[in-house]
């Protein structure tokens, strides 16, 4: 696939299949381009809901960021092949990452071994290193926003909260269990929030749950601000050391935020043996190999009721803020 070289201009160009995932404003569906027979994941967003819930700027930003990133062809970032719209929907044609949600693989395993967690954490380090070099903060790392490709490598997706920020921004966003303390305190936040979320992800991979949990979001926020992390006895000592250094409220001491940036993380005892160049080239054995019968096998994804009928979309008859994107 040559991203952005494809000039698809209508959903009618595709044979639209099953739903691969859902969100507040639409869903992602497996689709085959009728003429080329190539397979994609098409993100279909309802304009009426995006406007009602003030998500217009988020979508514009997501499209612009994906457009820029897709020209880089980073091995662990999902690529956008094309985008278009009609009076009712925004469509983003993405590469199809067929191995299923990372979330599902983690929940099926309950928790990962130290080696497996280290393999996936290293890929996230490379993702953030690439994004931050372009002044992009992701702001929404969680297992649900990671996919496994057919070979068992990660692809990060859903750039709805991503933003180009050279220093600080003040928007409150993210998943409660993964929100960094500086976001909660509304002090302004930058690239450091992504390194905090890496610490949460490492903990969740090794312990089975995030470190700060509560039935009430306010309770989660209180625990985040208190900052006490309880580690299971099975938690690797080197992993514990890195997790603590990532889950540090003081940005002057948080790994990833200091003078050497991501190098501090890459050189820590837990990750020091990682073959970074081989990983970036996808030359390593993967600890999880999704079971696939064919390149159109969507069985690694959850089954969803097909609620959106593209032939009968909800009607939006006001001024279209997406007209020029």
From TrEMBL:
InterPro entries: AGC-kinase_C, Kinase-like_dom_sf, Prot_kinase_dom, Protein_kinase_ATP_BS, Ser/Thr_kinase_AS. Gene3D superfamilies: Phosphorylase Kinase, domain 1, Transferase(Phosphotransferase) domain 1. Keywords: ATP-binding, Kinase, Nucleotide-binding, Serine/threonine-protein kinase, Transferase. Residues 272-325 form the AGC-kinase C-terminal domain. This is Uncharacterized protein. Residues 14-271 form the Protein kinase domain. PROSITE patterns: AGC_KINASE_CTER (PS51285), PROTEIN_KINASE_ATP (PS00107), PROTEIN_KINASE_DOM (PS50011), PROTEIN_KINASE_ST (PS00108). ATP binds at residue 43.
């Amino acid at each position: 696939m040559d991203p952005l070289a494809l000039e698809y201009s209508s959903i009618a160009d595709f044979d639209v299949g099953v739903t691969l995932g859902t969100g507040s404003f639409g869903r992602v569906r497996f689709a085959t381009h009728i003429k080329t027979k190539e397979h994609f994941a098409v993100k279909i967003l309802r304009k009426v809901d995006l406007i009602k819930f003030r998500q217009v700027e988020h979508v514009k930003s997501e499209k612009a960021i994906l457009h820029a990133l897709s020209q880089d062809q980073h091995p662990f970032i999902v690529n956008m092949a094309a985008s278009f719209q009609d009076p009712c929907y925004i469509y983003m044609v993405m590469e199809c990452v067929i191995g299923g949600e990372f979330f599902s693989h983690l929940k099926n395993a309950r928790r990962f071994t130290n080696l497996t967690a280290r393999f996936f954490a290293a890929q996230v380090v490379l993702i953030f290193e690439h994004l931050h070099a372009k002044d992009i903060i992701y702001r929404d790392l969680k297992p649900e926003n990671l996919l496994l490709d057919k070979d068992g490598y990660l692809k990060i997706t859903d750039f709805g909260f991503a933003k180009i920020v050279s220093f600080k921004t003040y928007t409150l966003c993210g998943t409660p269990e993964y929100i960094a303390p500086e976001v909660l305190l509304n002090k302004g936040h930058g690239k450091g929030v992504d390194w905090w979320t890496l610490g949460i992800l490492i903990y969740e991979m090794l312990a089975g749950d995030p470190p700060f949990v509560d039935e009430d979001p306010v309770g989660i926020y209180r625990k985040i601000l208190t900052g006490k992390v309880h580690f299971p006895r099975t938690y690797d000592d080197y992993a514990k050391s890195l997790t603590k250094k990532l889950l540090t409220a003081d940005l002057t001491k948080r790994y990833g935020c200091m003078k050497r940036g991501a190098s501090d993380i890459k050189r820590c005892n837990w990750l020091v043996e990682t073959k970074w160049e081989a990983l970036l080239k996808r030359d390593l054995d993967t600890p999880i190999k999704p079971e696939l019968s064919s390149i159109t096998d969507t069985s690694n994804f959850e089954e969803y009721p097909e609620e959106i009928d593209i032939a009968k979309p909800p009607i939006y008859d006001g001024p279209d803020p997406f007209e020029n994107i």
